[in-house]
Protein backbone atom coordinates (compact mmCIF):
# COMPACT_ATOMS: atom_id res chain seq x y z
CA UNK A 1 0.00 0.00 0.00
CA UNK A 2 2.82 2.32 0.87
CA UNK A 3 4.46 1.46 -2.45
CA UNK A 4 1.25 2.37 -4.23
CA UNK A 5 1.19 5.77 -2.59
CA UNK A 6 4.73 6.49 -3.58
CA UNK A 7 3.94 5.55 -7.12
CA UNK A 8 1.43 8.38 -7.29
CA UNK A 9 3.86 11.01 -6.22
CA UNK A 10 7.53 11.51 -5.72
CA UNK A 11 9.35 12.22 -2.46
CA UNK A 12 9.77 15.90 -3.35
CA UNK A 13 6.07 16.24 -4.00
CA UNK A 14 5.15 15.14 -0.50
CA UNK A 15 6.39 18.40 0.91
CA UNK A 16 4.63 19.82 3.92
CA UNK A 17 4.29 23.57 4.10
CA UNK A 18 3.23 25.96 6.75
CA UNK A 19 2.15 29.58 6.69
CA UNK A 20 2.91 32.51 8.92
CA UNK A 21 0.18 33.40 11.40
CA UNK A 22 -0.37 36.69 9.59
CA UNK A 23 -1.05 34.93 6.29
CA UNK A 24 -3.23 32.33 8.01
CA UNK A 25 -5.33 35.05 9.59
CA UNK A 26 -5.41 37.72 6.90
CA UNK A 27 -5.83 35.65 3.75
CA UNK A 28 -9.25 34.25 4.73
CA UNK A 29 -10.43 37.72 5.73
CA UNK A 30 -9.18 39.20 2.50
CA UNK A 31 -10.65 36.47 0.33
CA UNK A 32 -14.04 36.43 2.00
CA UNK A 33 -14.06 40.24 1.93
CA UNK A 34 -13.27 40.20 -1.78
CA UNK A 35 -15.98 37.66 -2.40
CA UNK A 36 -18.49 39.91 -0.67
CA UNK A 37 -17.29 43.06 -2.41
CA UNK A 38 -16.75 41.93 -5.99
CA UNK A 39 -20.41 41.21 -6.88
CA UNK A 40 -21.32 44.82 -6.09
CA UNK A 41 -19.38 45.99 -9.11
CA UNK A 42 -19.03 42.84 -11.20
CA UNK A 43 -22.08 40.72 -10.70
CA UNK A 44 -20.97 38.00 -13.09
CA UNK A 45 -17.98 37.23 -10.83
CA UNK A 46 -20.30 36.04 -8.08
CA UNK A 47 -19.69 32.43 -9.13
CA UNK A 48 -16.25 32.42 -7.54
CA UNK A 49 -16.04 30.95 -4.08
CA UNK A 50 -12.72 32.28 -2.85
CA UNK A 51 -13.34 30.81 0.57
CA UNK A 52 -13.53 27.35 -0.94
CA UNK A 53 -10.41 27.86 -3.02
CA UNK A 54 -8.50 29.01 0.03
CA UNK A 55 -9.72 26.05 2.06
CA UNK A 56 -8.47 23.65 -0.59
CA UNK A 57 -5.17 25.50 -0.94
CA UNK A 58 -4.41 25.43 2.78
CA UNK A 59 -5.50 21.81 3.05
CA UNK A 60 -3.33 20.48 0.25
CA UNK A 61 -0.34 22.59 1.28
CA UNK A 62 -0.34 21.63 4.97
CA UNK A 63 -1.34 18.05 4.22
CA UNK A 64 -2.86 17.70 7.64
CA UNK A 65 -6.40 16.50 8.03
CA UNK A 66 -6.83 18.22 11.36
CA UNK A 67 -5.49 21.47 10.04
CA UNK A 68 -7.57 21.16 6.87
CA UNK A 69 -10.85 20.62 8.63
CA UNK A 70 -10.23 23.40 11.13
CA UNK A 71 -9.30 25.85 8.40
CA UNK A 72 -12.38 24.84 6.44
CA UNK A 73 -14.57 25.28 9.48
CA UNK A 74 -13.13 28.70 10.23
CA UNK A 75 -13.55 29.98 6.68
CA UNK A 76 -17.01 28.47 6.38
CA UNK A 77 -18.17 30.07 9.61
CA UNK A 78 -16.76 33.39 8.49
CA UNK A 79 -18.85 33.12 5.34
CA UNK A 80 -21.86 32.14 7.41
CA UNK A 81 -21.47 35.41 9.29
CA UNK A 82 -22.21 37.35 6.12
CA UNK A 83 -25.34 35.44 5.21
CA UNK A 84 -28.69 35.24 6.95
CA UNK A 85 -28.68 31.45 7.08
CA UNK A 86 -27.97 29.62 10.35
CA UNK A 87 -24.34 29.22 11.34
CA UNK A 88 -22.81 26.02 10.13
CA UNK A 89 -24.25 25.73 6.64
CA UNK A 90 -21.05 26.77 4.92
CA UNK A 91 -19.03 25.72 7.97
CA UNK A 92 -20.03 22.06 7.61
CA UNK A 93 -19.53 22.05 3.83
CA UNK A 94 -16.07 23.56 4.03
CA UNK A 95 -15.02 21.41 6.98
CA UNK A 96 -15.70 18.34 4.87
CA UNK A 97 -13.90 19.85 1.90
CA UNK A 98 -10.91 20.76 4.06
CA UNK A 99 -10.70 17.26 5.45
CA UNK A 100 -11.12 15.64 2.05
CA UNK A 101 -8.65 17.90 0.28
CA UNK A 102 -5.94 17.35 2.87
CA UNK A 103 -6.52 13.58 2.68
CA UNK A 104 -6.17 13.59 -1.09
CA UNK A 105 -3.28 16.04 -0.93
CA UNK A 106 -1.25 13.40 0.86
CA UNK A 107 -1.71 10.93 -1.94
CA UNK A 108 -1.44 12.83 -5.18
CA UNK A 109 0.72 15.54 -6.65
CA UNK A 110 -1.24 18.73 -6.15
CA UNK A 111 1.37 21.14 -7.46
CA UNK A 112 0.54 20.22 -11.01
CA UNK A 113 -1.95 22.65 -12.68
CA UNK A 114 -3.91 19.76 -14.17
CA UNK A 115 -4.36 18.00 -10.88
CA UNK A 116 -5.23 21.29 -9.19
CA UNK A 117 -7.92 21.88 -11.79
CA UNK A 118 -9.43 18.44 -11.28
CA UNK A 119 -9.10 18.66 -7.51
CA UNK A 120 -10.97 21.95 -7.29
CA UNK A 121 -13.59 20.80 -9.79
CA UNK A 122 -14.25 17.71 -7.70
CA UNK A 123 -14.37 19.54 -4.37
CA UNK A 124 -16.54 22.30 -5.76
CA UNK A 125 -19.07 19.61 -6.67
CA UNK A 126 -18.74 18.06 -3.21
CA UNK A 127 -19.20 21.46 -1.57
CA UNK A 128 -22.33 22.24 -3.57
CA UNK A 129 -23.76 18.78 -2.96
CA UNK A 130 -23.25 19.09 0.80
CA UNK A 131 -24.60 22.62 0.79
CA UNK A 132 -27.74 21.69 -1.15
CA UNK A 133 -28.27 18.65 1.04
CA UNK A 134 -28.11 20.80 4.17
CA UNK A 135 -30.48 23.36 2.68
CA UNK A 136 -32.98 20.73 1.65
CA UNK A 137 -32.76 18.18 4.44
CA UNK A 138 -31.86 20.26 7.47
CA UNK A 139 -33.34 23.63 6.65
CA UNK A 140 -36.30 22.45 4.60
CA UNK A 141 -35.77 25.03 1.88
CA UNK A 142 -36.74 24.42 -1.74
CA UNK A 143 -33.66 23.57 -3.75
CA UNK A 144 -33.19 24.25 -7.43
CA UNK A 145 -30.29 22.37 -8.99
CA UNK A 146 -29.15 23.88 -12.25
CA UNK A 147 -26.57 21.36 -13.40
CA UNK A 148 -25.31 23.51 -16.26
CA UNK A 149 -24.78 26.50 -14.03
CA UNK A 150 -23.04 24.46 -11.35
CA UNK A 151 -20.78 22.80 -13.91
CA UNK A 152 -19.87 26.18 -15.36
CA UNK A 153 -19.18 27.53 -11.91
CA UNK A 154 -17.00 24.51 -11.13
CA UNK A 155 -14.94 25.06 -14.28
CA UNK A 156 -14.62 28.78 -13.54
CA UNK A 157 -13.51 28.11 -9.98
CA UNK A 158 -11.05 25.47 -11.13
CA UNK A 159 -9.48 27.86 -13.61
CA UNK A 160 -9.32 30.57 -10.99
CA UNK A 161 -7.71 28.08 -8.61
CA UNK A 162 -4.89 27.36 -11.05
CA UNK A 163 -4.09 31.08 -11.21
CA UNK A 164 -4.70 31.79 -7.54
CA UNK A 165 -2.69 28.86 -6.20
CA UNK A 166 0.28 30.04 -8.26
CA UNK A 167 0.10 33.39 -6.47
CA UNK A 168 -0.53 31.93 -3.05
CA UNK A 169 2.50 29.62 -3.39
CA UNK A 170 4.62 32.66 -2.53
CA UNK A 171 3.31 32.55 1.02
CA UNK A 172 4.36 28.95 1.60
CA UNK A 173 7.08 28.20 4.09
CA UNK A 174 8.72 24.79 3.77
CA UNK A 175 8.61 22.67 6.92
CA UNK B 1 -2.49 25.32 15.52
CA UNK B 2 -3.51 25.20 11.92
CA UNK B 3 -0.82 27.62 10.89
CA UNK B 4 2.09 25.83 12.51
CA UNK B 5 1.41 22.56 10.77
CA UNK B 6 2.23 20.62 13.93
CA UNK B 7 0.28 17.56 12.92
CA UNK B 8 1.18 17.61 9.29
CA UNK B 9 3.95 14.99 9.17
CA UNK B 10 1.80 12.52 11.07
CA UNK B 11 -0.50 12.30 8.13
CA UNK B 12 2.23 11.96 5.51
CA UNK B 13 3.09 8.33 4.74
CA UNK B 14 6.76 7.80 5.14
CA UNK B 15 8.81 4.63 5.46
CA UNK B 16 9.09 3.72 9.10
CA UNK B 17 12.52 2.19 8.74
CA UNK B 18 14.06 5.45 7.61
CA UNK B 19 15.87 6.90 10.58
CA UNK B 20 15.47 10.53 9.61
CA UNK B 21 11.79 10.18 8.87
CA UNK B 22 11.16 8.39 12.10
CA UNK B 23 12.76 11.28 13.93
CA UNK B 24 10.58 13.72 11.98
CA UNK B 25 7.50 11.75 12.95
CA UNK B 26 8.43 11.86 16.58
CA UNK B 27 9.24 15.56 16.70
CA UNK B 28 5.68 16.82 16.49
CA UNK B 29 4.72 14.30 19.13
CA UNK B 30 7.31 15.79 21.41
CA UNK B 31 6.16 19.24 20.51
CA UNK B 32 2.60 18.33 21.34
CA UNK B 33 3.67 16.71 24.62
CA UNK B 34 5.75 19.71 25.53
CA UNK B 35 2.95 22.19 24.85
CA UNK B 36 0.08 19.88 25.63
CA UNK B 37 -1.31 22.03 28.39
CA UNK B 38 -1.19 25.14 26.28
CA UNK B 39 -2.83 23.39 23.34
CA UNK B 40 -5.59 22.00 25.53
CA UNK B 41 -6.09 25.40 27.15
CA UNK B 42 -6.37 27.17 23.80
CA UNK B 43 -8.69 24.49 22.46
CA UNK B 44 -10.97 24.64 25.46
CA UNK B 45 -10.99 28.43 25.43
CA UNK B 46 -11.75 28.56 21.73
CA UNK B 47 -14.53 26.00 22.05
CA UNK B 48 -16.07 27.98 24.88
CA UNK B 49 -15.73 31.23 22.99
CA UNK B 50 -17.42 29.69 19.99
CA UNK B 51 -20.21 28.26 22.10
CA UNK B 52 -20.63 31.63 23.77
CA UNK B 53 -20.69 33.47 20.49
CA UNK B 54 -23.35 31.13 19.19
CA UNK B 55 -25.56 31.62 22.21
CA UNK B 56 -25.05 35.22 23.18
CA UNK B 57 -27.01 37.91 21.45
CA UNK B 58 -25.31 41.22 21.63
CA UNK B 59 -27.60 44.10 22.41
CA UNK B 60 -27.18 46.87 19.89
CA UNK B 61 -29.18 50.03 19.50
CA UNK B 62 -31.17 48.27 16.80
CA UNK B 63 -31.92 45.17 18.81
CA UNK B 64 -30.21 41.93 19.77
CA UNK B 65 -27.70 40.51 17.29
CA UNK B 66 -25.88 37.23 17.67
CA UNK B 67 -22.34 37.90 18.85
CA UNK B 68 -20.58 35.80 16.24
CA UNK B 69 -22.50 37.57 13.48
CA UNK B 70 -21.72 40.93 15.03
CA UNK B 71 -17.99 40.19 15.17
CA UNK B 72 -17.96 38.69 11.67
CA UNK B 73 -19.71 41.62 10.04
CA UNK B 74 -17.64 44.20 11.86
CA UNK B 75 -14.47 42.44 10.76
CA UNK B 76 -15.39 42.25 7.09
CA UNK B 77 -17.17 45.61 6.73
CA UNK B 78 -14.02 47.78 7.06
CA UNK B 79 -12.44 45.85 4.17
CA UNK B 80 -15.45 46.46 2.02
CA UNK B 81 -15.63 50.10 3.04
CA UNK B 82 -11.98 50.63 2.18
CA UNK B 83 -12.29 48.88 -1.19
CA UNK B 84 -15.39 50.78 -2.22
CA UNK B 85 -14.03 54.19 -1.26
CA UNK B 86 -10.60 53.68 -2.81
CA UNK B 87 -12.25 52.41 -5.99
CA UNK B 88 -14.49 55.45 -6.07
CA UNK B 89 -11.58 57.84 -5.78
CA UNK B 90 -9.89 56.34 -8.83
CA UNK B 91 -13.11 56.20 -10.76
CA UNK B 92 -13.98 59.77 -9.79
CA UNK B 93 -10.90 61.19 -11.53
CA UNK B 94 -11.72 59.39 -14.73
CA UNK B 95 -15.44 60.16 -14.66
CA UNK B 96 -14.74 63.85 -14.01
CA UNK B 97 -12.77 63.99 -17.20
CA UNK B 98 -15.51 62.22 -19.12
CA UNK B 99 -18.17 64.47 -17.66
CA UNK B 100 -16.51 67.54 -19.11
CA UNK B 101 -16.92 66.21 -22.61
CA UNK B 102 -20.13 66.98 -24.46
CA UNK B 103 -21.42 68.93 -21.50
CA UNK B 104 -22.85 71.71 -23.66
CA UNK B 105 -25.07 69.49 -25.80
CA UNK B 106 -26.05 67.60 -22.69
CA UNK B 107 -27.01 70.87 -21.06
CA UNK B 108 -29.24 71.82 -23.96
CA UNK B 109 -30.89 68.46 -23.97
CA UNK B 110 -31.50 68.59 -20.25
CA UNK B 111 -33.01 72.04 -20.45
CA UNK B 112 -35.44 70.84 -23.08
CA UNK B 113 -36.31 67.82 -20.96
CA UNK B 114 -36.72 70.00 -17.91
CA UNK B 115 -39.24 72.19 -19.65
CA UNK B 116 -41.24 69.20 -20.77
CA UNK B 117 -41.10 67.63 -17.34
CA UNK B 118 -42.26 70.79 -15.65
CA UNK B 119 -45.27 70.86 -17.89
CA UNK B 120 -45.95 67.24 -17.16
CA UNK B 121 -45.47 67.79 -13.47
CA UNK B 122 -47.90 70.67 -13.31
CA UNK B 123 -50.51 68.53 -15.00
CA UNK B 124 -49.88 65.61 -12.69
CA UNK B 125 -49.98 67.76 -9.60
CA UNK B 126 -53.32 69.08 -10.61
CA UNK B 127 -54.56 65.52 -10.94
CA UNK B 128 -52.97 64.64 -7.63
CA UNK B 129 -54.72 67.49 -5.90
CA UNK B 130 -57.96 66.37 -7.35
CA UNK B 131 -57.30 62.83 -6.09
CA UNK B 132 -56.44 64.19 -2.64
CA UNK B 133 -59.66 66.11 -2.50
CA UNK B 134 -61.55 62.96 -3.37
CA UNK B 135 -59.62 60.94 -0.78
CA UNK B 136 -60.21 63.57 1.88
CA UNK B 137 -63.89 63.42 1.13
CA UNK B 138 -63.81 59.68 1.66
CA UNK B 139 -61.80 59.93 4.89
CA UNK B 140 -59.05 57.89 3.32
CA UNK B 141 -55.77 57.40 5.20
CA UNK B 142 -52.54 56.23 3.70
CA UNK B 143 -48.85 55.84 4.47
CA UNK B 144 -46.63 58.72 3.51
CA UNK B 145 -42.90 58.52 3.21
CA UNK B 146 -41.66 61.25 5.48
CA UNK B 147 -37.92 60.77 5.37
CA UNK B 148 -35.31 58.61 3.69
CA UNK B 149 -31.60 57.99 4.15
CA UNK B 150 -29.41 57.53 1.10
CA UNK B 151 -26.95 54.68 1.53
CA UNK B 152 -24.25 53.10 -0.55
CA UNK B 153 -24.00 49.38 -1.19
CA UNK B 154 -20.62 48.23 0.11
CA UNK B 155 -20.97 44.48 -0.14
CA UNK B 156 -23.03 41.37 -0.56
CA UNK B 157 -23.18 38.06 1.24
CA UNK B 158 -20.87 36.70 -1.45
CA UNK B 159 -23.14 33.69 -1.85
CA UNK B 160 -25.62 33.13 -4.64
CA UNK B 161 -28.03 31.46 -2.28
CA UNK B 162 -28.15 34.27 0.24
CA UNK B 163 -29.22 37.47 -1.43
CA UNK B 164 -28.14 40.16 0.97
CA UNK B 165 -26.67 43.61 0.64
CA UNK B 166 -24.53 45.54 3.07
CA UNK B 167 -25.03 49.29 3.32
CA UNK B 168 -22.64 51.90 4.63
CA UNK B 169 -25.29 53.31 6.96
CA UNK B 170 -26.36 51.75 10.23
CA UNK B 171 -27.99 52.41 13.56
CA UNK B 172 -26.09 55.66 13.97
CA UNK B 173 -27.85 56.99 10.88
CA UNK B 174 -31.27 56.10 12.18
CA UNK B 175 -31.69 52.82 10.33
CA UNK B 176 -33.72 50.12 12.06
CA UNK B 177 -34.72 46.57 11.15
CA UNK B 178 -37.68 46.13 8.79
CA UNK B 179 -37.26 49.50 7.13
CA UNK B 180 -38.03 49.37 3.39
CA UNK B 181 -35.16 49.88 0.96
CA UNK B 182 -35.91 51.35 -2.46
CA UNK B 183 -34.39 52.92 -5.55
CA UNK B 184 -36.14 55.33 -7.89
CA UNK B 185 -36.78 52.35 -10.18
CA UNK B 186 -38.44 50.16 -7.60
CA UNK B 187 -38.33 48.20 -4.41
CA UNK B 188 -35.08 46.54 -3.31
CA UNK B 189 -35.96 44.83 -0.04
CA UNK B 190 -35.99 45.50 3.66
CA UNK B 191 -33.42 46.00 6.39
CA UNK B 192 -32.75 42.72 8.15
CA UNK B 193 -30.04 43.44 10.72
CA UNK B 194 -28.52 46.73 11.79
CA UNK B 195 -25.06 47.32 13.20
CA UNK B 196 -23.40 50.54 14.26
CA UNK B 197 -22.27 51.78 10.86
CA UNK B 198 -23.48 48.98 8.64
CA UNK B 199 -26.79 47.40 7.90
CA UNK B 200 -27.85 44.21 6.20
CA UNK B 201 -30.61 44.26 3.60
CA UNK B 202 -32.64 41.22 2.63
CA UNK B 203 -33.28 41.56 -1.06
CA UNK B 204 -36.63 41.10 -2.71
CA UNK B 205 -35.45 38.07 -4.68
CA UNK B 206 -34.17 36.10 -1.71
CA UNK B 207 -35.85 32.80 -1.09
CA UNK B 208 -37.02 33.87 2.36
CA UNK B 209 -38.34 37.26 1.27
CA UNK B 210 -42.01 38.14 0.76
CA UNK B 211 -43.82 41.34 -0.18
CA UNK B 212 -47.53 42.03 -0.43
CA UNK B 213 -48.19 43.17 -3.99
CA UNK B 214 -51.05 44.39 -6.11
CA UNK B 215 -51.36 44.36 -9.88
CA UNK B 216 -52.00 47.91 -11.02
CA UNK B 217 -54.52 47.22 -13.78
CA UNK B 218 -56.40 44.16 -12.58
CA UNK B 219 -56.10 45.12 -8.86
CA UNK B 220 -55.38 41.48 -7.98
CA UNK B 221 -53.38 40.98 -4.81
CA UNK B 222 -50.70 38.39 -4.14
CA UNK B 223 -47.30 37.92 -2.55
CA UNK B 224 -44.06 38.46 -4.41
CA UNK B 225 -41.40 35.97 -3.32
CA UNK B 226 -37.90 35.10 -4.43
CA UNK B 227 -37.04 31.79 -6.06
CA UNK B 228 -33.93 29.62 -5.61
CA UNK B 229 -32.62 31.03 -8.90
CA UNK B 230 -33.00 34.62 -7.76
CA UNK B 231 -36.06 35.45 -9.82
CA UNK B 232 -39.26 37.04 -8.56
CA UNK B 233 -42.57 35.23 -8.53
CA UNK B 234 -46.06 36.52 -7.79
CA UNK B 235 -47.91 33.88 -5.80
CA UNK B 236 -51.49 33.22 -4.87
CA UNK B 237 -53.22 34.56 -7.98
CA UNK B 238 -55.99 32.17 -8.89
CA UNK B 239 -55.65 30.41 -12.21
CA UNK B 240 -59.01 31.69 -13.47
CA UNK B 241 -57.81 35.29 -13.26
CA UNK B 242 -56.50 37.15 -16.27
CA UNK B 243 -53.03 38.63 -15.92
CA UNK B 244 -51.16 40.06 -18.87
CA UNK B 245 -47.39 40.25 -19.27
CA UNK B 246 -46.17 43.80 -18.90
CA UNK B 247 -48.65 44.67 -16.18
CA UNK B 248 -46.95 46.65 -13.43
CA UNK B 249 -46.99 45.66 -9.76
CA UNK B 250 -46.81 47.88 -6.72
CA UNK B 251 -46.70 47.16 -3.02
CA UNK B 252 -50.11 46.61 -1.47
CA UNK B 253 -49.16 47.81 2.00
CA UNK B 254 -50.82 44.78 3.52
CA UNK B 255 -47.60 43.43 5.00
CA UNK B 256 -47.20 46.55 7.17
CA UNK B 257 -43.54 46.79 6.21
CA UNK B 258 -43.67 48.42 2.82
CA UNK B 259 -45.87 51.47 2.24
CA UNK B 260 -48.52 51.11 -0.38
CA UNK B 261 -47.77 52.06 -3.95
CA UNK B 262 -44.03 51.47 -4.25
CA UNK B 263 -43.21 50.03 -7.67
CA UNK B 264 -41.99 46.43 -7.60
CA UNK B 265 -41.70 45.55 -11.26
CA UNK B 266 -43.69 44.20 -14.17
CA UNK B 267 -45.13 40.82 -15.02
CA UNK B 268 -42.73 39.09 -17.40
CA UNK B 269 -44.55 35.80 -18.01
CA UNK B 270 -47.74 34.06 -16.99
CA UNK B 271 -48.37 30.33 -17.15
CA UNK B 272 -50.59 27.76 -15.53
CA UNK B 273 -49.17 26.65 -12.21
CA UNK B 274 -49.20 23.26 -10.55
CA UNK B 275 -52.01 24.02 -8.15
CA UNK B 276 -54.91 26.39 -8.33
CA UNK B 277 -52.64 29.35 -8.82
CA UNK B 278 -50.98 30.98 -11.78
CA UNK B 279 -47.23 30.82 -12.18
CA UNK B 280 -46.37 34.49 -12.63
CA UNK B 281 -42.80 35.62 -13.11
CA UNK B 282 -41.99 39.22 -12.29
CA UNK B 283 -39.20 41.36 -13.65
CA UNK B 284 -38.03 43.67 -10.86
CA UNK B 285 -38.10 47.40 -11.54
CA UNK B 286 -34.78 47.95 -9.82
CA UNK B 287 -31.77 46.14 -11.24
CA UNK B 288 -31.13 44.01 -8.19
CA UNK B 289 -27.81 42.77 -9.53
CA UNK B 290 -26.28 46.19 -10.03
CA UNK B 291 -27.21 48.30 -7.06
CA UNK B 292 -24.82 50.98 -5.94
CA UNK B 293 -26.98 53.48 -4.08
CA UNK B 294 -30.29 52.90 -2.38
CA UNK B 295 -32.73 54.81 -0.21
CA UNK B 296 -33.85 53.53 3.16
CA UNK B 297 -37.28 54.75 4.19
CA UNK B 298 -36.71 55.74 7.80
CA UNK B 299 -40.05 57.31 8.54
CA UNK B 300 -43.55 56.84 7.25
CA UNK B 301 -46.69 58.22 8.77
CA UNK B 302 -50.34 57.48 8.30
CA UNK B 303 -52.41 60.55 7.65
CA UNK B 304 -55.35 61.63 5.62
CA UNK B 305 -54.54 63.61 2.52
CA UNK B 306 -55.25 67.30 2.79
CA UNK B 307 -57.46 68.80 0.16
CA UNK B 308 -55.66 71.81 -1.15
CA UNK B 309 -58.18 74.52 -1.65
CA UNK B 310 -55.76 76.72 -3.50
CA UNK B 311 -55.86 76.84 -7.20
CA UNK B 312 -52.87 75.29 -8.83
CA UNK B 313 -50.81 76.41 -11.74
CA UNK B 314 -52.19 74.63 -14.71
CA UNK B 315 -50.13 73.08 -17.40
CA UNK B 316 -51.70 75.40 -19.94
CA UNK B 317 -50.46 78.38 -17.93
CA UNK B 318 -46.93 77.09 -18.02
CA UNK B 319 -47.27 76.40 -21.70
CA UNK B 320 -48.49 79.93 -22.21
CA UNK B 321 -45.33 81.17 -20.53
CA UNK B 322 -43.28 79.35 -23.12
CA UNK B 323 -45.09 80.73 -26.11
CA UNK B 324 -44.11 84.01 -27.68
CA UNK B 325 -46.44 86.79 -26.68
CA UNK B 326 -47.35 90.08 -28.22
CA UNK B 327 -46.51 92.92 -25.90
CA UNK B 328 -49.54 95.03 -25.19
CA UNK B 329 -49.56 98.68 -24.49
CA UNK B 330 -48.34 99.86 -21.11
CA UNK B 331 -51.05 100.06 -18.45
CA UNK B 332 -50.56 103.80 -18.10
CA UNK B 333 -51.22 104.35 -21.79
CA UNK B 334 -54.19 102.10 -21.90
CA UNK B 335 -57.54 103.64 -21.19
CA UNK B 336 -58.80 102.54 -17.82
CA UNK B 337 -61.53 100.02 -18.08
CA UNK B 338 -64.62 101.15 -16.40
CA UNK B 339 -66.00 98.85 -13.75
CA UNK B 340 -68.47 96.54 -15.20
CA UNK B 341 -67.38 97.12 -18.75
CA UNK B 342 -66.55 93.98 -20.71
CA UNK B 343 -62.91 93.18 -20.98
CA UNK B 344 -61.33 93.57 -24.35
CA UNK B 345 -60.95 90.24 -26.09
CA UNK B 346 -57.45 88.86 -26.13
CA UNK B 347 -55.98 86.80 -28.91
CA UNK B 348 -55.29 83.22 -28.08
CA UNK B 349 -51.89 82.59 -26.58
CA UNK B 350 -51.38 86.18 -25.65
CA UNK B 351 -50.90 86.96 -22.01
CA UNK B 352 -51.20 90.42 -20.77
CA UNK B 353 -49.06 91.67 -17.88
CA UNK B 354 -50.92 92.56 -14.75
CA UNK B 355 -50.62 95.96 -13.25
CA UNK B 356 -48.59 96.16 -10.09
CA UNK B 357 -50.58 96.09 -6.94
CA UNK B 358 -53.29 93.94 -8.33
CA UNK B 359 -54.14 91.15 -5.98
CA UNK B 360 -54.79 88.82 -8.84
CA UNK B 361 -51.31 89.33 -10.25
CA UNK B 362 -49.72 87.11 -7.63
CA UNK B 363 -50.11 83.44 -8.39
CA UNK B 364 -51.69 81.29 -5.81
CA UNK B 365 -48.97 79.38 -4.01
CA UNK B 366 -49.72 75.81 -4.82
CA UNK B 367 -49.11 73.00 -2.42
CA UNK B 368 -45.84 71.28 -3.05
CA UNK B 369 -42.86 72.73 -4.79
CA UNK B 370 -43.82 72.68 -8.39
CA UNK B 371 -42.53 75.47 -10.60
CA UNK B 372 -43.92 78.89 -9.95
CA UNK B 373 -44.23 81.26 -12.89
CA UNK B 374 -42.97 84.70 -12.06
CA UNK B 375 -45.66 87.32 -11.69
CA UNK B 376 -45.23 90.66 -13.36
CA UNK B 377 -44.99 92.36 -9.99
CA UNK B 378 -45.38 90.97 -6.53
CA UNK B 379 -48.43 91.95 -4.64
CA UNK B 380 -49.22 91.95 -0.99
CA UNK B 381 -52.53 90.24 -1.37
CA UNK B 382 -52.92 86.54 -1.75
CA UNK B 383 -55.16 84.85 -4.17
CA UNK B 384 -58.20 83.45 -2.56
CA UNK B 385 -59.17 79.87 -3.30
CA UNK B 386 -60.84 79.72 -6.59
CA UNK B 387 -59.79 83.21 -7.50
CA UNK B 388 -58.48 84.28 -10.83
CA UNK B 389 -55.88 81.97 -12.21
CA UNK B 390 -52.26 83.05 -11.90
CA UNK B 391 -50.58 84.62 -14.85
CA UNK B 392 -47.04 83.66 -15.71
CA UNK B 393 -44.56 86.37 -16.47
CA UNK B 394 -44.87 87.04 -20.15
CA UNK B 395 -41.93 88.35 -22.16
CA UNK B 396 -39.27 87.23 -19.69
CA UNK B 397 -39.90 83.60 -20.48
CA UNK B 398 -40.04 83.98 -24.20
CA UNK B 399 -38.03 81.40 -26.00
CA UNK B 400 -36.51 80.04 -22.83
CA UNK B 401 -37.28 77.19 -20.56
CA UNK B 402 -38.22 77.78 -17.00
CA UNK B 403 -35.28 77.32 -14.71
Give a brief outline of the structure.
The complex is a heterodimer of chains A (175) and B (403). With 175 residues, chain A is mainly alpha-helical.
Protein architecture, described:
- The complex is a heterodimer of chains A (175) and B (403).
- By secondary structure, chain A is mostly helical.
- Chain A has a single domain, classed as Arp2/3 complex 21 kDa subunit ARPC3 (Orthogonal Bundle), CATH 1.10.1760.
- Chain A has seven helices and two strands; from the N terminus they run αβααααααβ.
- Chain A has helices at 2-8, 21-41, 50-62, 65-82, 89-107, 113-138, 147-168; strands spanning 17-18, 173-174.
- In chain A, α5 (89-107) runs antiparallel to α6.
- The radius of gyration of chain A is 16 Å and the shape is globular.
- Chain A starts with a helix and ends with a strand.
- Mean pLDDT of chain A is 84; it is low at 1-12.
- Chain B is an alpha+beta fold and 403 residues long.
- Among the domains of chain B are: 25-55; 149-302, Beta Barrel (Thrombin, subunit H).
- Helix content of chain B is 29%, strand content 23%.
- In chain B, the strands form three sheets. In chain B, strands 3-4-7-6-5-14 form a six-stranded antiparallel barrel.
- In chain B, β8 (210-215) and β9 form a beta hairpin.
- In chain B, α5 (103-137) runs antiparallel to α6.
- Chain B is extended and about 105 Å long.
- The termini of chain B are far apart.
- Mean pLDDT of chain B is 71; it is low at 1-20 and 333-403.
Summarize the helix and strand pattern of chain B as letters. HHHEEHHEEEEEEEEEEEEH
Structural classification of chain B: alpha+beta
The CATH H-level homologous superfamily of the domain at 149-302 in chain B:
Rod shape-determining protein MreC, domain 1
* Largest beta-sheet details of chain B: 6 strands, antiparallel, barrel
Mean residue pLDDT of chain B: 71
Radius of gyration of chain A: 16 Å
How many beta-strand runs of chain A? Answer: 2
Text of the CATH class of the domain at 149-302 in chain B: Mainly Beta
Low-confidence segments of chain A: 1-12
Separation of the first and last Cα atoms of chain A = 25 Å
Amino acid sequence: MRTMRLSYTSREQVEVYRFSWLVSAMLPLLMVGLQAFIPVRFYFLRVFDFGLLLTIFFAVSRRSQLSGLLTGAAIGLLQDCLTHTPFGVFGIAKTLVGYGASSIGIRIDVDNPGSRFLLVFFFFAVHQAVFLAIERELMGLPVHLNVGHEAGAAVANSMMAVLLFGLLNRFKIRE
Amino acid sequence: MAACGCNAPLAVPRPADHAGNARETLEPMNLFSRHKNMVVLVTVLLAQLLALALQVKRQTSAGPVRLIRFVGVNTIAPFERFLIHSGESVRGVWSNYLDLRNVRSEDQRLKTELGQMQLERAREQEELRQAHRMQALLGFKQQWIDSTVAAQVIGTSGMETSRLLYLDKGAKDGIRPDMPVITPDGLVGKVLNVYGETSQVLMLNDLTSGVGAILVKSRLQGIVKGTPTGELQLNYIMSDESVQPGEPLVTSGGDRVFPKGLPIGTVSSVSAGHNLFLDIKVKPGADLNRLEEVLVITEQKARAPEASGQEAVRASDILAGHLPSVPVAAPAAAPPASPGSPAAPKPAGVTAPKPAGSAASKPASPAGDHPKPKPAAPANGTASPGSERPKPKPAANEGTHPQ
